[in-house]
Specification:
The structure is a homodimer.
Chain A: H1 4-10, H2 24-34, E1 47-51, H3 54-73, H4 81-88, E2 100-107, H5 113-130, E3 134-137, H6 147-153, E4 159-168, E5 184-188
Antiparallel strand pairs in A: 1-2, 2-4, 3-4
Helix pairs in contact in A: 2-5
Chain lengths: 192, 192
């Protein structure tokens, strides 16, 4: 049991994990918590896929890296130069060799899929932190296009991956990088 | 102090509030918690505006309703018929006469604004629930285009509103509407 303030401190981006599997029933518990996230008109559009095999994860990392670099070369996206170097490094695994990876996806047709999936992702990250686990949303891992790999994840053409989240037991919980104070542009106060 | 499971139960969509103001320092505390939300490349793109005046809130509700109905008439969006009736009802306030309203917005140029703002919104909703307050993300309240109203909120042309969140002391905390079990499409298990 921890206070909300402790939970906020524990929910940090974790990329360095103990070499210890996350039991599937624990992943299922976390995903059950995630179903309590609000969604537009209570549509509950999110679908999940869980990867616990490091070899499969490596293949998914390679695919996402290749797709991102191709889009950059084709000028469909403009990657930051530091990301280009990182993605070109064969030894860089976008999923940081985590013991577990959860994909949050949903129908392309759902207009509010991005925000609904992000809310579910926040629930996953808090639910994991509350159980002593660490997570990191790895946006570089979302570009999976190869039909065979998508098939293995159960993601048909009409589903879009929004949030790949790595999960495991953290080696350490780093302090939060500095945040600026909330930028409150206006306060329209109650008329007296 | 509450367990995470209690926090999940308390974080419900609340639309019926006590007639009791939310002190600004409490709103500021909640927004400070929201700055701890993760964001793509730690960009922290979110900006906030707080409305505590019910007259201003009514004007914002009227503006958003009118803009949505215009877009529907112009066939830019296709509203569900039940929403059309609701939006045409003069007495319907999209913000449910809440004592407080927080807008989460950010630069249109930020590619991941939707998900970054949704993560901040999740933090706001949990931070409020942890303090005995209720919230509801009111998507129907996001369509504020009138330059004067936008100016009063401090939202220049280059900012986009993602999440209007009403805030107050709940009259009651309803049970969660039914959720389906998490749809886990595949589990790719560790090779033995």
């Amino acid at each position: 049991m921890m206070t909300f303030s402790e939970l906020l401190q524990k929910r940090r981006a974790i990329r360095d994990f103990e070499d210890k599997a996350v039991p599937l029933p624990l992943v299922e518990e976390i995903l059950r918590d995630a179903t309590l996230a609000p969604s537009a008109s209570n549509n509950q559009p999110c679908r999940f896929s869980v990867v616990q095999c490091r070899k499969a994860m490596k293949n998914l990392s390679d695919e996402s890296k290749a797709c991102l670099l191709k889009d950059h070369d084709d000028k469909k996206i403009a990657l930051n130069p530091q990301y280009v170097n990182l993605l070109q490094d064969e030894n860089f695994n976008v999923f940081y060799n985590a013991p577990c990876l959860i994909f949050v996806a949903g129908p392309k047709s759902a207009g509010s899929l991005d925000v609904d999936a992000a809310l579910a992702a926040a629930y996953i990250m808090f639910a994991a932190a509350a159980r002593g686990l660490g997570t990191c949303w790895v946006a570089l891992g979302a570009n999976i296009r190869d039909p065979q790999l998508r098939g293995e994840l159960g993601f048909s053409e009409n589903l879009r991956i929004v949030a790949p989240i790595i999960l495991g037991y953290p080696k350490a919980i780093p302090a939060a990088p500095e945040r600026h104070a909330p930028e409150i542009l206006r306060v329209i106060a109650e008329a007296r």
